[in-house]
């Protein structure tokens, strides 16, 4: 990774993901989290204040050392133990069937091999464990003009924001990894351009890998 990716992008993300408009979405996506939680793409810890009291511990997966340092105050103020374990969501150094829930917020857009990352999340979840997610991605099929703009702007988005994609079909990716979506809200974020504001917020359940 170069200087821009290592030293600049985490600061941009810290500001961009710390907006007031994100707070209601963070509250919603964290509702129902319980027990031991693995959070992929922990970033600078903006979800920490919204962990419900049912959470007993959080294992954070975060590739950026700077991002983890920027999260220090939030981690210190957390009401539950938060530890960093692993840098790469595509290869988690965690045991099978360990976690009760997983959390992903605006992360699946950036991970290079998102299919591998989702399979890893499913592997480390206990059977019946839940994945809570809020992500931006490909606009609905009814908005083909928005989709065209997303595909057109995607190379620029990747360069400016550390590999972030505008056009990933989030719901399809989650289900293709073997999850069953039990709650889903697909919408445009108010006040955002549709190219970056096509959001999916939901909960998906993991079955046992041995069932496949």
From TrEMBL:
One Pfam family matching this protein: Methyltransf_11
Alphabetically ordered keywords of this record: Methyltransferase, Transferase
InterPro entries, per database record: Methyltransf_11 (IPR013216), SAM-dependent_MTases_sf (IPR029063), Thiol_S-MT (IPR052356)
Limits of the Methyltransferase type domain: 38-132
Gene3D superfamilies assigned: Vaccinia Virus protein VP39
GO biological process, one term: methylation
Molecular functions (GO terms): methyltransferase activity
The name this protein goes by in its record: Methyltransferase family protein
Lineage: Bacteria, Bacillati, Actinomycetota, Actinomycetes, Propionibacteriales
